[in-house]
Write a structure and sequence with these properties.
By secondary structure, the protein is of the alpha+beta class. Helix content is 41%, strand content 21%.
Length: 372
């Protein structure tokens, strides 16, 4: 496998990942912009509107027809946050050209189709279609209202919101219901144009491909050619964590089982320390041999699930347990004991080597193309 990154023009970079491990090729476009309270909800709406149709493919029905003609290509899009940035993501997956029954370039067609959807949206009276806006506003409202449906994810979200209150990372990636009412076809289109002119654009193509041909295809695409050269506006560094005393936040819901989440912020932020944090997390709760799993879950049976994950963009570790509510105090006490054990160095060289090996494997596995 080989990677090649090349600047197409200022603020636009192509990334070609050549690999023969798959029978499909994946095309992805990432638009990275600052995560702000003012724009977070509008940003979340944009992928929902763009997927409705482009100038050349005027509806979802026409997009689906185009995908079927590309031997059942798959398309998806969505929103995420990475550190203090919000990322609008668009994916299209096609069968690799060498597996086609006849000679044709489906990959090139897929690239043109995805770039058309992202950069050439369907308009009506120089704005987004009002019908699409009203439909997607209701869908976004349902998504935001439904954030409590998955209790484990909601507990993790609330912990992040409390830890990073008044910083970009504390914002909910789908935005806020109170903002939805003010969104209309005109102001959202104006915001879209601002995003396209200012965001950092990354175009990824992964598969058994010719890097030079793909870069040439992207560079000569009419939608890319129309984009201005600009200095992209996004957060190149993450906001610092605000130190405070240990706080306990309890939110009561009408449920029989609870979710316990502890957020730990790491002071040191060097590259070397991040590698240490990866190993630390694996020993603490990042694997089936970890302290969280073996002691909290297996030995003491205080949790249905017990794990931790390291968030490298914010240099934080989140410990997560699914528990019986009556076991809250016992579980919290036992978790803190495991953290103290780590401070005292109560782990073995074997634990360290196993954590290193596991994360090396994880890094390789991460190259598998999975949607967010």
């Amino acid at each position: 496998m080989s990677d090649k990154a090349q600047k197409v023009k200022e603020g636009i970079t192509s990334h070609i990942i050549k690999t023969d491990k798959f029978k499909t090729d994946l095309i992805a476009v990432f638009l990275t912009t600052k995560l702000t309270r003012e724009d977070v909800t509008k940003n979340a709406m944009i992928p929902m509107i763009l997927r409705k149709g482009s100038q050349n493919l005027g509806s979802m029905e026409e997009i689906n027809k185009e995908l079927e003609e590309m031997y059942g290509a798959g398309f998806d899009c969505g929103i995420d946050k990475t550190g203090d940035n919000q990322v609008l993501k668009f994916y299209l997956e096609t069968i690799d050209n060498k597996y086609l029954p006849q000679e044709e370039n489906v990959l090139e067609k897929g690239i043109d189709t995805l770039l058309d959807i992202v950069f050439n949206p369907k308009l009506e009276n120089n704005a987004f279609k009002k019908e699409y806006i009203e439909t997607e506003k209701e869908k976004l409202k349902i998504i935001i209202e439904g954030k409590k449906d998955n209790k484990a994810a909601y507990a993790n979200l609330r912990c992040q919101e409390e830890m990073y209150k008044d910083t970009p990372f504390g914002l909910y990636k789908y935005g806020y219901i109170e903002d939805i009412e003010n969104i209309n076809q005109n102001n959202l289109y104006e915001h879209y144009k601002k995003i396209i002119s200012e965001c950092k654009i990354d175009i990824f193509v992964s598969g058994d491909v010719d890097a030079e041909k793909i870069i040439n295809t992207i560079s000569k695409n009419t939608n890319v050619e129309r984009l201005n050269e600009r200095e992209p506006v996004y957060n190149k560094t993450n906001s610092a964590f605000k130190k405070h005393e240990e706080r306990e936040v309890i939110e009561k819901l009408d449920v029989t089982q609870g979710n316990l989440v502890l957020g730990l912020s790491i002071d040191e932020n060097s590259k070397e320390e991040k590698y240490v944090a990866i190993v630390y997390n694996a020993i603490l709760g990042g694997s089936a041999t970890s302290k969280m799993f073996q002691i909290v879950r297996e030995k003491h049976s205080l949790a249905y699930t017990a794990s931790s994950n390291y968030l490298r963009h914010k240099n934080s570790i989140f410990i997560k347990c699914g528990i019986e509510i009556d076991n809250y105090e016992k579980t919290l006490k036992l978790i803190k004991e495991q953290i103290e054990d780590m401070k005292k160095g109560n782990f073995t060289e074997e634990d360290i080597e196993r954590a290193k090996l596991r994360n090396n494997i994880s890094c390789k596995a991460y190259t598998r193309r999975t949607r967010y």
